Amino acid sequence: MGDPRLGSRLKDIRTAAGLTQAELAERAGVSRKTINTVENGVFVPSTLLALALARALGTTVEALFYLTD
């Protein structure tokens, strides 16, 4: 078993909420590029960012992100 990696449902949940990357970014107080890099697995969000994204989407951090083996 290797080191766990971060899996993300951010894009699925964002699109289900009918939000663009730019709209979610505005709600969460970050740039659209930040949303893009998190959705593409380039950037692992900080705890603060993960919580802000969950709040902006009306969900939990656990619903947005998970560990993969």
Automatic annotation (TrEMBL):
GO MF, one example: DNA binding
UniProt cross-references to SMART domains, sorted A to Z: HTH_XRE
Keyword field: DNA-binding
Domain HTH cro/C1-type: 10-64
InterPro entries (UniProt xref): Cro/C1-type_HTH, Lambda_DNA-bd_dom_sf
PROSITE patterns: HTH_CROC1
Protein name as catalogued: Transcriptional regulator
Organism: Brevundimonas subvibrioides
UniProt lineage: Bacteria, Pseudomonadati, Pseudomonadota, Alphaproteobacteria, Caulobacterales
